[in-house]
Amino acid sequence: MRYANPLTRTAAQAITFVCAVVFVVFSIIYLHFFQPEFLGLEQDVLSQGQTTYYPAWGTPLITLLLLGLGLLFRAFFPFPIRVQALAWFPSAFLLGVLTCMRFQEGTNEVSHIPWAWIIVLAGLYVLSLIISRMFPDTRSEKETLSTYMFPNMLILAFSFLCTCMIGNTSTSLHFELKAQQMIAEKNYDGALRVGERNQSFTPRLTALRAYALSRRNILGDSLFCYPLHAGSQDLLPVCPDTLTRGNVPSEIYEYLGARPGSKFREPHVTHFLELVYEHDTISRPQVAQYLLCSYLLDKSLDKFSDFIVQIYDSLTASVPRHYQEAIVLDTYLRNPQDSTFYGQDIYDEFVHFYHQKSKYISRGATIARNSCTEDFSHTYWFYYYFSN
User: Fold this and answer.
1) Are residues 241 and 379 in the same domain?
2) I need a surface site. Which of 79, 214, 239, 279 has the fewest CB within 10 A?
3) pLDDT tens, 129-180?
4) Is the link from the previous residue into 240 a cis peptide, with omega within 30 of 0?
5) Which H or E element spans position 164?
6) Is residue 379 within 8 Å of residue 354, measured between CB atoms?
């Protein structure tokens, strides 16, 4: 639209430029930093594994195409200057549609697409186009640039919100995909950092973390530093698990030297590991570490105590941290008067934990748990008493 007032023309050009820059920045952040693994999964599923998504190419290509679409809408639709940002809604909308698939757990089948949101938002956009044509610019008005800019930024913010509403923004799924990508790149430290700040955990993410910890030779030192479901069922991934990239489940079972049969179910993880260890013709220390952690996750201290003496010649400070914690706990449960660990730092820490727990347990398990979280959430004792 041509404006007679030069200030208004300048304002219209400035708004077009600012909207374009803001959209490009949002698109790059959304595609390259938030959704790259998910887009890779989508392309892998839709192409049945025949093609691969590369964020370094996909992000600029998609962004340029959507930028061009926004500029076309701006050129062919005479939007009033106060709502010029409506030209960028279709681009933001398509950005959400591009990442809208939801998958069934453990499969590569699409469970649903948020058609309701897609239809409602498309309808609202058509309605907004009609209304904007009914109230064109007043050619004689003279407003400041900030007066025009504010409503346009609000429209852009709403458009980006719609992108996130349509797109698959599942935090747990993105953490899983990110960890898988890190493992595929042999970046085990990076995989362990995924989701650690918000303490997220799912069965798949737990199995990925356990594998990364084992690769770093710290499974027995750090497994219980992460939140865990009670039981060993999450220690190994479902196999086959098609909602993954890089064939990570197969890599984990190759690392252990055996693959479960078709009748394998997660509750039998411990039994599976026992069979692997028993029939292992090639010594694999990682299998023993997995089995020890499996006993601990099942809270089977008797089996753990019987097995650990087969693995370690002496139960000294060189034994991984969580194993020491389990040994102290088992010793205490068998005989609270046993003085074997008296004077050792780990025993003093256990006494502190036990007194803290006992102090608040009469007020309820939740209060006792909260009282111990800050100082002891990284210990096996915390898991043993408070996981369920």
Assistant:
1) no
2) 279
3) 888 777 766 554 566 667 778 889 999 999 999 999 999 988 888 898 899 8
4) yes
5) helix 145-166
6) no
Give every CB contact of residue 79 below 8 A, 6+ residues apart in sequence: 1, 86, 87, 132
- Tens-digit pLDDT profile for residues 206-248: 999 999 999 999 999 999 999 999 899 999 987 665 555 557 8
Distances (CA, A) of 366 to 5, 27, 231, 350, 355: 67, 43, 20, 19, 16
How many CB atoms neighbour CB 257 within 10 A?
Answer: 16
Domain C-terminal end among 260, 295, 311:
311
59 with 95: CB under 8 angstroms? no
Measured between alpha carbons, how far is 188 from 216 in angstroms, rounded to an integer? 7
Tokens 């948020």 belong to which residue? Answer: 114
Residue type, position 353, single letter: F
Q: Give the span between the Cα atoms of 265 and 112, in whole angstroms.
A: 26
Do residue 108 and residue 180 come from a single domain? no
Q: Look at the chain and report how many structural domains it folds into.
A: 3
Predicted structure pTM score:
0.85
Indicate whether 68 and 197 sit together in one domain. no
In this structure, is residue 187 part of a structural domain? yes
Tokens of 350: 């256990």
Q: What is the CA radius of gyration of the chain?
A: 28
Check: CB of residue 187 under 8 Å from CB of residue 157. no
Query: Encoding tokens for residue 115?
Result: 């058609």
Could you tell me if 383 and 286 lie in one domain?
A: no
Let me know whether 299 and 324 are in one domain: no
Same domain, 186 and 272: yes
Cα dist from 228 to 58, 290, 301, 336, 375, whole Å: 36, 15, 17, 27, 17
Q: Which amino acid is at 347?
A: Y
Q: Which of 214, 196, 215 is nearest to 205 (CA)?
A: 196
My answer on whether 92 and 187 are in the same domain is: no
Residues 116 and 26 in one domain: yes
Q: Which domain holds residue 342?
A: 319-388
According to DSSP, residue 34 is labeled I
